[in-house]
Amino acid sequence: MDRQTLCDWVHRYNVSDVAGLETGKRSGRPPALSDAQMAELKALVIKGPDPEKDGVVRWRCVDLRAAIARLYSVQVDQRTVAKWLRKFNLTRLQPRPYHPKKDAEAQETFKNSFANLVIEALPTSAAGKPLEIWFQSLPLGLTRGMKPEWVRRDGSPTSGRRSARGLLRYGTIVTIRSTFHGSSPRTRFGAICPDRQVGAAIIMPAANTEAMNEHLKEISTQVQPGTHAALICDGAGWHQPGKRLDVPANITMMPLPAYSPELNSMENVWHYLRANKLSLLVWDSYEAIVTACKNAWDFLINDPDRISSIGTRAWAYVST
Q1: Which end of the chain, N or C, is less surrounded by CB atoms within 10 Å?
Q2: 132 and 232 in contact (C-beta within 8 Å)?
Q3: Is 297:201 a contact under the CB 8 Å cutoff?
Q4: Are the C-beta atoms of 84 and 41 separated by less than 8 Å?
Q5: Which one, of 292, 319, 269, lies nearest residue 139 by Cα?
């Protein structure tokens, strides 16, 4: 204890007796936002962004950080935004791929025996080659659906707002339907390799075997030379082996158990793209739909770390 501290204590004791020695409440750093601004921010989060004005279709911490800087001329860290959201007692509600008819036991068996299943399915031409694990899916669009949104932690929704068009159901095919009369649906075929952080996608007018053949060709071009790909997919009709399905020599199809979208990480990719690029939007033309699909896919491909973060599954590994 230095002399000055002792003098301060004596002075505080002489003024307020023993109570004067208690540690006082420090003012600390002033809050970045006032109470009124915090209430306004909470209302903004609950309301959700305006796609045209804010440039996003859902609030992320990074988006809210930019909005706070724009509205209040205050710079805060993303972690601070996350703390404020917890202080508001809000949590993000996001749908996950799930099918009510799933067989949990069959799914566990598939994951535990995945490596052996792949080895048994590989053709002799793949012997000794490095193996890539790919996930493939293509979803079926409905005109209405649920977007991820911030809700109170008690589970009650904060907003009844839903996507007008282009938000998709759980399933195995993703179709973007336009909103103008007489238009044709567009179907996105997508696949990712989480380990290499790459993907392959095409936009087709329909989901059928012919379209699947085109997607297989595109995936084949993305498989590294001298390697073989195990392509995890669901049991859709256009995935079934037969005379019409032309599987490239460097790809082996690995069907999932029935009703198992949660095992296919491409389903999570579609949810991610819908949440960030394709919800709360209405397209006015055929070309706008195609452009929206392309931009959404480019958004993913330009973020390779996101591909591995969303797509990696510990069980999807084969030692060759």
Answers
A1: N
A2: no
A3: yes
A4: yes
A5: 269
Residue 284 buriedness (CB in 10 A; 0-12 / 13-18 / 19+): exposed
- Bridge partners for 165 per DSSP: 281
Q: Which domains does the chain have, with CATH numbers?
A: 32-88 (no CATH), 104-146+153-311 (3.30.420.10)
The C-alpha atoms of residue 153 and residue 269 are separated, in whole angstroms, by: 25
pTM of the model: 0.68
- The DSSP string of 165-187 is BS-B-SSS-EEEPPSSTTPPPEE
Half-sphere exposure of 57 (CA within 13 A, CB side): 24
Write down the residue that tokens 């399915």 correspond to. Answer: 121
Q: Is 246 helix (H, G, I), strand (E, B) or coil?
A: coil
Torsion of CA 20, 23, 29, 32, to 10 degrees: -100
Q: Which amino acid is at 174?
A: V
Length of the chain: 320
Structure tokens belonging to residue 84: 């404020």
